[in-house]
Amino acid sequence: MPNATCFLIAYLLVLVIESVRFVISGESLRQWLTRVSLGMFLLAFLTHTLYLADLVIQGIWYEQGFRYLKTWGDWSIAAAWVLALAYCVMLYRRSDKQIGLFLLPLILLLVALAVVFPSDSPIGKSTSTVSFWRMVHSMAMLIGTILVALGFASGVMYFVHARKLKNRLNMRWSFRLPSLEYLQQLGQSCTLGSAAAIGFGVVSGAIMNFTRDGFVAWTDRGILLTTALFVWLCIAALAQRISTNRGKGEWTAALNILSFAIVVATLAAVVTAPHGVSNWGDA
């Protein structure tokens, strides 16, 4: 089966081709590069999918349970796959846009973290079995994080596109991005969806802890941080709704970028906390 380095290199090549498309003005050459980029991306995505499928098969064969993603590296690969799937959908709907310049770096970063910093030890105790609520909790947090990353990409694209329109760079750069209205709506939807997912992750995590320990340690650093993250995302979603009604699209984009920075800091703190070391892996 393929290893993570294979699709890491393939995604990197796609990013290089997308960068070349950015500076090429000839329409015929751009169309040819678009087809090459699409073919290379599909190859990378297929390899990525086979890698994850192999993890699931090994989990079923050796673990005899639902513990398919055992390490933080596995979850990082899974998050990258979902982002790649989102990019695939957006590429299908808007193949003439340079969306890959903003999404591919996030995909590469997640895969690179799993490749450069591999971990053979499972999250939590190696003899434990991931319970149903633990898997629900982990998946909810994963979905919330991915939506925040998508919102971050939309926020960056919004500012780049707004600057391009303001400075009238259309004639100098053959650089196509989705409309500002679409990017604003995407960013708002990502924040709202991530708030719902993180909130469900907090609730399922509390149920998980209660069923295991008989109580919920609300003063645990990991629980406090994820709860605070949920509160922030709710505030950001409300602020984006207000800014949309007032025609302030840049506020929505700025909140998406800020939310991404807060999520990265929160995840770093949670992973290094006892909550991240044991609570996400014990059953």
Arithmetic mean pLDDT:
80
Q: Number of folding domains?
A: 2
Overall, the morphology is: flat
Query: What's the total number of strands?
Result: 0
- Whole-angstrom Rg: 20 Å
What is the count of helical runs? 9
What order do the helices and strands follow?
HHHHHHHHH
Determine the structural class based on helices, strands and strand pairing. mainly alpha
Distance between the termini: 29 Å
Biggest beta sheet summary: none
Unreliably modeled segments: 124-130, 278-283
Helix fraction, binned, reads over 70%
Strand content: under 5%
What can you tell me about this protein's structure?
The chain is flat, with a radius of gyration of 20 Å. The chain starts with a helix and ends with a helix. Helices cover 78% and strands 0% of the residues. It is mainly alpha-helical and 283 residues long. The chain has nine helices and no strands.
